[in-house]
Inverse folding.
């Protein structure tokens, strides 16, 4: 959409992605025939018409005063958050009798725009950093709770030599994202050298706990069906980052440690400290120095002889993560006779036997085989031979029998 009227200074010059429900399709016989043959994806690619009238309704007045419109759960305009911080309701007064709607509006705005906290408030949320959840090269994570009782994870980045670059990378990345498979940033602290990031709390920790046969607490491993669902969720999250979030984001550090699991084991991509933001049409990325984790870094990231750096570098890391999820690395490391081999090569040589032993029943065998084939495609040596994350999602959703093993072109 693009509006050229001279009297409208805030012309829309960017693409807007909106969900389209299947109930909205025209009920004509011809349309249903197209839907059956082409699927929703092709119909969406053909496009559909949207109408937009910016001068209609109270939101126009709100935007003219540089405010932010808000709506209640019924889709009704309930007020305007003004540039001076005050709140005007639908009748343009500062005071309103619709207390419930104003509460909803403030809550909705808070969800869209992460709150800025002082360092003193961060200490209060974490009870002076009393409950440590984990520590790594990125910093230390503590459990905390908001005034409404909601649990949160508070990350205090390390004081590194990058002068806060990783912190700003993560803040800039997550303030641009909103997806079920990307961790939600609820707030942040930026007070001189004191910095903190406040996320939604993930009760099941990271995927690293479940990547192999048993998690770190000795509990039973996840079922193959659950692991497959996690792999699909990560793929959807990466597809969103690479394609659908406006300013495209390449993560550069996909690995089990950076995939968090909520109470329903829904995966959330986290830790955007090494992420790179790029224009929507930018395919080749320039970075300073190698970034990522050994074992998951794409070959082109540490040596240009393998190709150019792009979103396909995340695809490689995703493939290594998937192969680790099926236990390939763990299996080969326990076998003294084959431990010197590169584990994807071992998978090529022992795939049928491994799928049978790991899967057991036929349904699980099919899942294991599909994950391995997708993983092997993702770690192809040349970036151009790897699928996009959109294609990865399609591969995961198709029948296992429709997939074929890629040529053996791997990093030795």
């Amino acid at each position: 959409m693009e509006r050229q009227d001279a009297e409208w200074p805030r012309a829309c010059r960017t693409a807007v992605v909106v969900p389209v429900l299947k109930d909205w399709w025209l009920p004509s016989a011809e349309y249903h025939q197209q839907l059956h043959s082409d699927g929703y994806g092709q119909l969406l690619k053909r496009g559909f018409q949207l109408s937009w009238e910016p001068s209609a309704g109270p939101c126009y007045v709100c935007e003219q005063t540089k405010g932010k419109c808000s709506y209640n759960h019924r889709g009704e305009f309930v007020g305007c958050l003004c540039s001076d911080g005050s709140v005007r309701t639908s009748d343009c007064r500062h005071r309103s009798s619709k207390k419930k709607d104003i509460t909803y509006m403030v809550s909705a705005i808070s969800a869209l725009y992460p709150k800025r906290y002082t360092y003193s408030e961060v200490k209060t949320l974490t009870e002076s950093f009393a409950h440590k959840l984990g520590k790594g090269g990125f910093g230390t994570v503590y459990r905390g709770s908001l005034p409404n009782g909601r649990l949160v994870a508070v990350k205090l980045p390390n004081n590194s030599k990058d002068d806060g670059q990783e912190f700003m990378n993560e803040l800039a990345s997550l303030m641009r994202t909103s997806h079920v498979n990307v961790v939600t940033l609820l707030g942040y602290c930026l007070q001189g050298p004191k910095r903190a990031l406040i996320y939604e709390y993930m009760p099941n920790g990271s995927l690293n706990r479940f990547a192999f046969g048993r998690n770190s607490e000795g509990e039973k491993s996840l079922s193959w069906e659950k692991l497959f669902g996690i792999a699909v969720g990560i793929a959807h999250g990466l597809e969103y980052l690479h394609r659908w979030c406006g300013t495209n984001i390449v993560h550069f550090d996909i690995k089990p440690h950076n995939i968090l699991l909520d109470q329903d084991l829904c995966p959330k991509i986290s830790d955007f400290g090494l992420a790179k933001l790029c224009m929507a049409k930018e395919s080749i990325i320039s970075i300073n120095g190698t970034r990522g984790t050994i074992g998951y870094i794409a070959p082109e990231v540490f040596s240009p002889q393998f190709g150019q750096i792009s979103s396909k570098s995340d695809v490689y890391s995703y493939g290594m993560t998937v192969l680790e999820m099926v236990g390939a690395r763990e299996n080969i490391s326990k076998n003294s006779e084959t431990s010197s081999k590169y584990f994807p090569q071992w998978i090529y040589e022992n795939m049928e036997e491994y799928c049978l032993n790991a899967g057991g029943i036929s349904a699980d065998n099919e899942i294991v085989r599909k994950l391995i084939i997708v993983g092997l495609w993702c770690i192809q040596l040349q970036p151009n031979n790897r699928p996009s994350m959109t294609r990865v999602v399609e591969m995961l959703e198709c029948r296992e029998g429709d997939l074929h093993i890629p040529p053996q072109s791997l990093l030795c």
Observations:
- Residues 207-402 form a domain with the Transferase(Phosphotransferase); domain 1 fold (CATH 1.10.510.10).
